[in-house]
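Issue 218. Parser rejects a valid record. Input:
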Amino acid sequence: MKQRIRVSFFGSSLVSAYWNGAATYYRGITRALDSLGYEITFFEPDAYDRQMHRDILSPSWAKVRVFEANRGGVLQALKEASEADIIIKASGVGVFDEFLEEAVLELRRPGVKAVFWDVDAPATLDRVNGNGNDPFLKLIPEYDLILTYGGGRPVIDAYDMLGAKGCVPIYNALDPDSHYPVAAEERYRCDLGFIGNRLPDRESRVWEFFFNAAAGSPDRGFILGGNGWDGTGLPNVKYIGHVYTRDHNAFNCSARAVLNVNRESMARYGFSPPTRIFEAAGAGACIITDEWEGIELFLKPGKEVLVAKDGHGVAECLKRLTPGEAASIGRAAFERILGSHTYAHRAKALDRLFSTEFRANVPTGC
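Output the parser choked on:
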């Protein structure tokens, strides 16, 4: 019988997607690893009102330890986490990030590995390359492994240049138990829907691909979900605020098409399909996305996804898109993702990586 591997995971939140776009990613990865016999304990801070906006109860596939966002809380979490075989520090925990990045390394002992999981590698790499005094620079070579949310060869090469022992992209994927086709709901019916929080690295691209498309399509209806967009609407844009994870399937199944807009850094590095693409494909939605390198590794442009270079391109897609064509593209995307890009696929690759104790010849992406 295979020995169970204990994993301690420090991340922003597993139970709340409030101002936390990584929640779906964390849930998919941890649930799939649990199905392979891993024991996951997820440590998250009580911060940013996330515990007040939970999407799920504490899950069956992972123990969730919510620690106080103070020094005593984080020290207690580290003490409990030290019992694991693999200790993971994700980027963007939100509190004590610099402290945790160093403290996790101090928990290593024979047979215990420390992993840094970068869920925003483009931003991290831009930051450290722009500041030679960034404290994370000296820590990169100390981690047994760097995992990333995506980024492909550009991110692997960048981390290699910074002395990483190994860097493996673990791409977003579909959790078919969470995201799947459902009946359309009138409250979400529109020609184009978009969900995304208002962030500095995303805002200008949302204005280009979403608001400019809406301004150029006054006869069509648009729905905007996410935090921070108050007061930015057009007459044909309905702003609905934060959309809880439980409502994503209905949202994706009710719009004729759903829009994906990468953040600036993600688009620049490429090879980083965000969570929304897999959620929408899992619901059988027709996706219109901004252009980024590597998309054909996940979906075939023109057949499984529509690609636009700017807001005018999005408007042109909507102008030509019939309900029948939208349904056909959505079905094709659903079949492609379900067959090749689920979290079960990602977890099996991770299991091979972890079970061989971080062999030197690590794969180039999972």
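Fixed in the parser; the record now loads. DSSP finds twelve helices and 13 strands in the chain.
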